[in-house]
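Can't attach files on this board, so I'm pasting raw text. These are the components:
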Amino acid sequence: MERPFAITLEVGSSLANHTGAWRTERPVYADKLPPCNDACPAGENVQRWLYEAEDGHYERAWRELMRDNPFPAIMGRVCYHPCQTACNRGKLDEAVGINAVERFLGDEAIRQGWTVPVTAAPTGKRVLVVGAGPSGLAAAYHLRLAGHEVTVRDAGRRPGGMMRYGIPAYRLGRDVLDAEIDRILAMGVTFEPETPVTDAAAALADFDAVFLAIGAQLSRRTDIPAGDSARILDALGVLRGVAEDEPPLLGRRVVVYGGGNTAMDVARTARRLGATDAVVVYRRTRQRMPAQPFEVTEAEEEGVRMHWLTTITAAGNGTVTVEKMRLDETGFPQPTGEFEELPADSMVLAIGQDVDRSIVDGLAGVRVDSGVVQVGADMMTGVPGVFAGGDMVPSERTVTTAVGHGKRAARYIDAWLRGRPYQSPARPPRAAFERLNTWYYSDAPATVRPRLDAARRTSTFDEVVGGLDEDTALFEARRCLSCGNCFECDNCYGVCPDNAVIKLGPGRRYAIDLEYCKGCGICVTECPAGAIDLVPEEP
Amino acid sequence: MTPTRVKFYQTGSFAVGNRLLPADLRAVQSDPTRTNSLTSGHRACQGCGEALAARYVLDAAMRASKGRLVTVNATGCLEVFSTPYPETSWRVPWLHSLFGNAPAVASGVAAALKAQSRTDIRVLGQGGDGGTVDIGFGALSGMFERGDDVLYVCYDNQGYMNTGVQRSGATPPAARTSTTQAVGPEPGNVFGQGKSAPLIAMAHEIPYVATATIADLRDLEYKVERAMALHGARYLHVLVPCPLGWGSTAGQTVAIARLATQSGIFPVFEAEDGVLTASTPIRRHVPVEEYLRLQARFRHLFEPERRADVIDRIQAAADHNIERFHLLSGEG
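---
Top answer:
Structure tokens for the assembled complex are below.
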């Protein structure tokens, strides 16, 4: 240490006095589970990749993201972002626009051509993935990274599953979809299109493990008396037709039956195909609608009309007959006996989808319950080596959930192939809002993503929601509170009256000097992120 | 005149450091090579606000004077806990003489340096509120009126804490101390007594007077730097909560200082040549009760029953500060 000027005497330093002996409690740095990470169906470490993005290290952020999810650009468009619903900043002003930053990172990766190298040693194990939807492709990506040979078979002509044949292009541009799928295939994943797998048992003979992810592709039917000339279509058929450039004839007046996201997608698609009148008929209220609120709002902006508390009782030539409903005490809709005629050139059923279970017919050990294939926590069916995930197993049936299933299945398949158990990492305690010291965060309202004019939305399949430019994405990333995780603000280093916090340098955080720490707890109180705990000393 | 606030880099300039900021925009305290003028091993209580403030002030003064600084200390906690024979926690040249003469000794050091034409070496006097506001006040006023080239810093913990928490001229009304017990119809320190040393300093029309707290490090460092850029007699008054004397939790020391500013009971401002030039606006306004409740020296205002009459008088004092120092009028 440099001797201060003007000191001539050798004086004893108080450093000889180890005040750490006074301590009854000690500060301990903790990495807690931020609510965003906790809520992410794909298990992304959101806080961590935002941290990387905060100082402009977009590639590092993207690579952190890619550890859990191979589709950042797709996620940034179609994920319903439960992370933002859970975000602690929502209690302060507005949630961090995590989804918008994710999209920026995903788009940046496509622009820059970033790829993920396969560095694991080849294992020689072969895995068959059935279904090239989000779940199957995510599993293929993770399995490939683990060094396995992966073959993906799909009944469709092109990979993507529901991302291609279910989600309209105005929500997910096809260039983005292709780019992120191609990146996975370029890692050495074999894709076999138009190769439906009908017998999973037979496939087991050629592969060491099988992952089933065929989704829920069967449109549910309902008994509606219909005249011979009534035109009735199913929602998936309509969306698939549009995706394959063979749009069905819907007419000018389209009635969509159902209240989920698929119903919204069909109604909005109908408007783009030229329907002057797109009407959604749903038997419950808006509050009880399963569709995401923003989808309903965007549909309404595009001129889709909603008939709540209404059921369709008959379909005829150019009309459908609907009946008004009312909710009983239990919240269940009951018929009222009041009928109405709606003009309709066509009616589209969007009342849910079922799993085609024939694929597991030959597997005696597979249990099917409530129409879906049952799997354990390890995503394995009752048949050793046969795993399943995505919409065909119990699921929230979102793209992100499917991606999460694919990742989890891949982890367990990898462990199974290597003949050892997979231990999922322990979940740290949740980072609660109450533990944050919000004083230290700058006031900063959320950034709004640009949106396409409503007038243009009804005529084109251009993406409705735009992306953020770099400045706004950076701003948005920096709104992150880094809940429960150190982000190196130096507060603990500064506020210690005893100089007992050691700064270890960029990226290496801090350590407590227990020789001198008196255990006052100021660092704990003043840590913005609540990332320091005060724990009792052992007696 | 207030420092440039960094508008938005996650924590802006609220936290001590910020990895997103260029190094020259970060606080002295975030620098791993800071002087640590008051180093580890000192015997201050857990969570001592004064020990924290002394390091903040002296590290900033050391940077401003490029390490050429002489410190003169009054008797008090700061002196006692830092220099029990034969140890010292000071890593700056440091003198101690008597309780009441620190400003006079500092004046003498400045005069001696002037006689030797050592203009590069700066002088900083420091003491607690007892040594400054009460016992050393004559010497301090003399230092002011002569315009001696000293920055004098008072660490105000509102009482004689070292000797057993006796009342000082800076103890606030209603506070319990060992000499103002919480008994009788008007428990604790009486209303209408005590004085504001910063306002008296301003009346001397010296070049610079400022108040600060340990809750706003960047503001405190800015004020030290500003004071060090000027010559003549300068005065800095820093509020430093005392867990022992205030009866507060050690970990709440900084939080309590923050509530003092956000309630308006401790106005943060600066003045040049006797004229108020800036005040730090309140960011999250709170009633004084939030500040008082965390301190056992005010417990008799809440137990056995809430003394709304007394709390209202304290609130009125805070409201008066808000008006007088324009604490709620946007940017100060």
